[in-house]
Amino acid sequence: MEGRADYRDSGLVFPETFTFGSATASYQVEGATSEDGRGPSIWDTFSKTPGRVWNGDTGDVACDHYHRVDADLDLMKDLGLDAYRFSIAWPRIQPTGTGAVNQKGVDFYSRLVDGLLERGIKPVATLYHWDLPQPLEDAGGWPVRATADAFEEYAAIMGAALGDRVHTWTTLNEPWCSAYLGYGQGGHAPGRHEPGAALAAVHHLNLAHGRALTALRATSTGSPDYSVTLNFHVLRGAGDGAAEAMRRIDALANRAFTGPMLRGEYPADLVEDTASVTDWSFVQEGDLAAIHQPIDVLGVNYYSTATVRLWDGVSPKQMNDGHKGAAGGTAWPGSDQLVEFALQPGPYTEMGWNIAPEGLEELLVSLSEQFPQQPLMITENGAAFADEVAEDGSVPDAERLDYLRRHFTAAHRALSRGVDLRGYFVWSLLDNFEWGYGYAKRFGIVRVDFDTLERTVKDSGLWYADLVKDRTIPA
């Protein structure tokens, strides 16, 4: 088949039941961070700490989606989206993370859900996309068990408020990032460098997921699907001990979540590998049963592959200081050696991530083989590039369009190999606040002028609208 080697196929037809969507996250798009009773989150605090975010950018205004929601909903309808994946800002619902409910926050998401339904778009709601209420972090954050207790209460509130209309509930987005980047590597909020706390956070995020599912099922009066979104590491090995490096990172990055969530157990090798960092005493009796709840669909986030290798150049003590490995990779604790993420051959996106559509096909097939009864959904895939506005006002983003073509081709190939793949959400609907990169990186299929907040559909967005309309990869 033409294009077989480079994943640039066209004319591939997706099933009528396949869901085409796009996605955003609350702190990245909403703005209005101090309006209508919203409390501060860890990302408010982190972004306002000098040196943490590029250019000192914050999410105070972001895309101003909070005030422009109706126009953004119309934009989604114009693109023909089947579904929209958004996240709920916990500090809008419970400003301190526990206790009294802020009704104005609930009302905003209720209007959003109603607006989606009025336009024939399925609401896919994520309870947690990294914006932990700051008072919960002040009390210890995800490394402490009380945060999982609070999350269960929050889930029950949202289930009662929106569970009659939401199409799919997603408990967590990328708990790997919340735990390891927030509490280990320190590049994300709250910016801590504590490997033991990172592993405790892994467990309490897993526990929060399981308890939230139970709470959502108890309070949702409709018939929503239930989900979680994980960012899987598709690994390549380098150097002597490559297989061992891949095993260790697979345990830390992938099986630390799929093990308890989908099998009801932590991998024995993970516990052994991290024995010098923690004794896992934070895992209490009954926790694994609470975590191991059935889900209707497993959310899969994929952007690139990762190359890892064993490295003896740093001690676990240095890990506590947030040491970065050679070649730009981040070292991770093991039992006696460390593993680092190494640079990979290009081409790259503006994030410095390699472009590897074959990795998406490989991941989907692997997950299907590991969990053959588990339906899958691509909940994020996309790319950042330095878009420029043309003289006629259009935004020709050929690199992003090509990236999406290649990854949709990979998804279709996985379907043709028997993977139960239910849909695909492009990241992101809008250019937005890209965490530590501020507004320097643009992922959107819709351009946002951050001076005027004007929206312009890019060429990739027009291409995607054609794909959705005909359910066929355009030429």
Approximately what portion of the residues adopt beta-strand conformation?
A: 15-25%
CATH architecture: Alpha-Beta Barrel
Provide the CATH top-level class: Alpha Beta
| Global structural class | alpha/beta
Strand order of the largest sheet: 1-2-3-4-5-7-11-12
Order of helices and strands: EHHHEHHEHHEHHEEHHHEEHEEHEHEEEH
Question: CATH H-level name... which superfamily?
Answer: Glycosidases
Task: Say how many strands there are.
Answer: 14
Helical element count? 16
Mean of all residue-level pLDDT scores? 94
Largest beta-sheet details: 8 strands, parallel, barrel
The radius of gyration is 21 Å
Calculate the terminal CA-CA distance, rounded to whole Å: 14 Å
At the third CATH level, what is the topology name?
TIM Barrel
Low-confidence residue ranges: 314-329
Shape: globular
Count of the separate structural domains = 1
Helix content: 25-40%
Catalytic activity: Hydrolysis of terminal, non-reducing beta-D-glucosyl residues with release of beta-D-glucose
Pfam family, one: Glyco_hydro_1
Keywords: Carbohydrate metabolism, Cellulose degradation, Glycosidase, Hydrolase, Polysaccharide degradation
EC number: 3.2.1.21
Structure commentary:
The structure is a single chain. Helix 9 packs parallel to helix 10, helix 14 packs parallel to helix 15 and helix 15 runs parallel beside helix 16. The strands form 3 sheets. An 8-stranded parallel barrel has the order 1-2-3-4-5-7-11-12, surrounded by 6 helices. A hairpin with a 5-residue loop joins strand 9 and strand 10. The chain has 16 helices and 14 strands. The chain starts with 18 loop residues before the first strand and ends in a 5-residue tail after the last helix. The chain has 475 residues and is an alpha/beta fold. The chain has a single domain, classed as Alpha-Beta Barrel (TIM Barrel), CATH 3.20.20.80. Helices cover 39% and strands 15% of the residues. Belongs to the glycosyl hydrolase 1 family. This is Beta-glucosidase. Its EC number is 3.2.1.21.
